[in-house]
Amino acid sequence: MQDLWVFGYGSLMWRPGFEHEERRPALLRGYHRSFCVYSHVHRGTPERPGLVFGLDAGGSCRGVAFRVEAARAEETKRYLQAREQVTLVYRDVVKPVELVGSGERVEALCFVVDRAHQQYAGRLDFEDQVRLIAEGEGRSGRNPDYLESTVRHLNEAGLPDEGLTRLWRAVEQRLRQSRASP
Q: Which of 59, 66, 109, 141 could form a disulfide with 32 if both were Cys (CB 3.0 to 4.6 A apart)?
C-alpha cells in the first residue's frame, strides 16, 4: 500500500474532515475550479438550489494536496465517497498534481464534475451566480459562507483568486441590499 494524495479545491481545502500527514499548495492542470454544480444537498435544495464548485474541463486549478498515510487510505476514500458523491455529480479520478514550491508531481484523488449529470450548471453568467449563491442554504450551511471560506482559505494558502474575490464582493453587496430592503 502507498500513501494517498487528495486534491482539494473548495471546502476540502478548509474542512477536509480526514486525518492527513501533510498539506501542500498544489496545481492541477487540465481542469479549473468553477461554480458549475447546482447544490441540492450541502448548500441548497432541489427547490432552491445553491451553487458549488466543480472541477470542470480546461485550464488549471490551484488548490491544496493532502497526503494521507497508507494505513488510512481506504477509510479516507470511503469518507470522501460518502461526502462528495451524495448525488453522484462528481466522478472520482486520479490525476497528476504539482506540489507548489518543490515542483514534485504526485498522483492525487480528484473529484471532477460529470457534465452529463442533471446538476451540472455549465457556465452561468455572473449575476446568476451571485443570485444562486446569495440565496442558497442546505445541510452544510449557507452558500455565501462556502464562497467566503474558500476565498479566505485561498488567500491564506497564498493562492488568491481575483475572480472569486470579485464574486464574493458582489454576493456581499446583494446580501447587504436584501437586509436593507423591507
A: 59
**Is residue 115 situated within a structural domain?**
yes
Domain residue limits at 109: 4-176
Q: What is the pLDDT along the chain (182 residues), one digit of tens a residue?
A: 799 999 999 889 889 999 999 999 999 999 999 999 999 999 999 999 999 999 999 999 999 999 999 999 999 999 999 999 889 999 999 999 999 989 999 999 999 999 999 999 999 999 999 999 999 999 999 999 999 999 998 888 788 899 999 999 999 999 999 887 76
Question: Which residues participate in catalysis according to the annotation?
Answer: 84
**Backbone torsions φ then ψ of 114, nearest 5 degrees:** -90, 105
